[in-house]
C-alpha cells in the first residue's frame, strides 16, 4: 500500500503544471542526460577513483579552498572517517555534537558502533551550539561537529560571527572543527560568505552531491592533504573504494554546473513563499524568514488528511503542494518540510496563497467526508 501511494505521488507530481515544494521527478533517462553534461562519455571510466572521480575531487577542493578532497560513496561513511581521524590524532574518544545532528538521528549511531566513539551534547536547544557552550564542555573532546544547516531543528544556521566564534572556541579547547556540510551549498547566502571562507573555519568538511545539487549519490571529505590521505586509507577499509563510480561523479559535476549557480535564487525566493504560506489559516512556518531554501510548515490538520489532500490536488488539478506530513506533539497539528527549488521560482506570493487555499479545500473535503462503518 505504501509503495502504491509513493508511485501515485511520483506520477502525479511529474504531471503537475505547478510545483510549490520540491523538484519535478526525473526518470533514469533524464539522469542519463546528466552524465553527458558532466563530462566526456567517450573518455575512459574511472578505475578505483581516477579519471572523472579525480576531476570531481579537484573541483570540490577548488570550490572549498582546501588542499584536497576525496570522494565517498555515502556521507555516513565519510563522517565516520572524519571523526575517527580526530580521535586517532588526539587520543580522545568523545565528540561534541548536537543531539539533532544527522550523526545522531539518521546514521544509526555509526560513530559509536563502528569506531567506539561517544558523544557529548553542548546544548539541546533547537540551534547550533554557541562558543560559550563549547568552552563550557565538561570533558575533553576530539572534535566539535557543526551541521550547516541543522536540518532537524528546521534547517537553521548560526550567523557568520557566531560560526567564527564557535570555531575559535573549539580550537581553544584543543578540538578539531568538523562541518557536516551536506547542504552547505544553500547555506552561503545566510552566512554572507563564500564556500571557501566558510570551509576555512573548519579542519574538515563533508559535502553531499545528491542533496541540493541533485547528483545521483555520493559525498566528499575535504581538508588538508594529510587528512585526505588518511581518509583514503579508511575509505578502503570501510569498503568504499568501489571499482567504478563514474556515473555518480559525472552527475555530481553536472549538478555543480547546473544547480549550484541557481541555489541563491532558491534561497531568496523561499522568503516570499514562506511568508505567503504563513498567511494560511492556522499555519506556522519556521524559521521565519527561512535561512536556506528549506523550512518547516505546520498546519492544524491530521497528517493523513494533509497527505491525501496533496495527492488529490495533484491528480485532479495538476498542482503540487507538499507531502510527507507527520504528526507533532500537538494533537491535530502536522508538520512537513518545504523545499523551494526550480519549479517554485515561477510562483508569485499570490500564486502560493491561491495554491494553499486550493489545497486546504481538499483537506476540508476529506475531514468532512463521512467515515465508513
From TrEMBL:
User: What's a BP term from Gene Ontology annotated to this protein?
Assistant: L-threonine catabolic process
Q: Which Pfam families match?
A: Beta_elim_lyase (PF01212)
Question: Which cellular component terms (GO) are annotated to the entry?
Answer: cytosol
Keywords from UniProt, A to Z, are: Pyridoxal phosphate
Position of the signal peptide:
none
Q: Where is the Aromatic amino acid beta-eliminating lyase/threonine aldolase domain?
A: 27-287
Family classification:
Belongs to the threonine aldolase family.
Task: Kindly provide the name given to this protein in its UniProt entry.
Answer: L-threonine aldolase
Tell me which species this is from: Asanoa ferruginea
Amino acid at each position: 500500500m505504501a509503495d502504491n501511494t509513493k508511485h501515485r505521488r511520483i506520477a502525479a507530481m511529474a504531471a503537475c503544471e505547478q510545483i510549490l515544494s520540491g523538484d519535478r521527478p526525473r526518470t533514469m533517462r533524464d539522469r542519463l542526460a546528466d552524465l553527458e553534461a558532466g563530462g566526456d562519455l567517450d573518455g575512459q571510466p574511472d578505475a578505483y577513483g581516477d579519471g572523472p572521480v579525480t576531476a570531481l575531487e579537484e573541483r570540490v577542493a577548488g570550490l572549498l579552498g582546501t588542499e584536497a578532497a576525496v570522494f565517498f560513496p555515502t556521507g555516513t561513511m565519510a563522517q565516520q572517517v572524519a571523526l575517527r581521524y580526530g580521535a586517532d590524532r588526539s587520543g580522545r574518544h568523545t565528540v561534541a555534537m548536537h543531539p539533532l545532528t544527522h550523526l545522531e538521528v539518521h546514521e544509526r549511531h555509526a560513530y559509536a558502533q563502528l569506531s567506539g566513539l561517544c558523544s557529548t551534547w553542548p546544548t539541546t536547544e533547537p540551534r547550533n551550539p554557541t562558543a560559550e557552550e563549547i568552552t563550557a564542555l565538561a570533558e575533553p573532546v576530539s572534535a566539535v561537529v557543526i551541521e550547516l544547516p541543522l536540518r532537524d531543528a528546521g534547517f537553521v544556521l548560526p550567523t557568520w560571527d557566531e560560526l567564527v566564534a564557535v570555531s575559535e572556541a573549539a580550537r581553544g579547547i584543543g578540538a578539531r572543527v568538523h562541518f557536516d556540510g551536506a547542504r552547505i551549498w544553500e547555506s552561503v547566502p545566510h552566512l554572507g560568505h563564500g564556500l571557501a571562507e566558510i570551509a576555512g573555519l573548519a579542519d574538515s568538511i563533508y559535502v553531499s552531491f545528491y542533496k541540493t545539487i541533485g547528483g545521483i549519490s555520493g559525498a566528499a571529505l575535504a581538508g588538508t592533504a594529510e587528512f585526505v590521505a588518511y581518509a583514503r586509507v579508511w575509505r578502503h577499509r570501510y569498503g568504499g573504494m568501489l571499482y567504478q563510480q563514474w556515473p555518480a561523479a559525472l552527475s555530481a559535476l553536472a549538478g555543480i554546473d547546473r544547480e549550484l549557480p541557481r541555489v541563491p535564487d532558491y534561497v531568496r525566493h523561499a522568503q516570499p513563499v514562506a511568508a505567503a504560506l504563513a498567511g494560511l489559516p492556522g499555519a506556522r512556518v519556521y524559521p521565519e524568514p527561512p535561512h536556506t531554501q528549506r523550512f518547516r510548515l505546520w498546519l492544524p490538520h491530521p497528517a493523513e488528511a494533509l497527505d491525501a489532500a496533496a495527492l488529490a490536488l495533484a491528480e485532479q488539478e495538476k498542482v503540487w503542494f507538499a507531502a510527507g506530513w507527520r504528526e507533532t506533539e500537538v494533537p491535530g497539528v502536522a508538520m512537513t518540510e518545504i523545499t523551494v527549488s526550480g519549479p517554485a521560482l515561477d510562483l508569485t506570493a499570490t500564486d502560493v496563497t491561491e495554491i494553499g487555499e486550493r489545497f486546504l479545500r481538499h483537506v476540508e473535503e476529506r475531514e468532512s467526508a463521512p467515515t465508513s462503518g
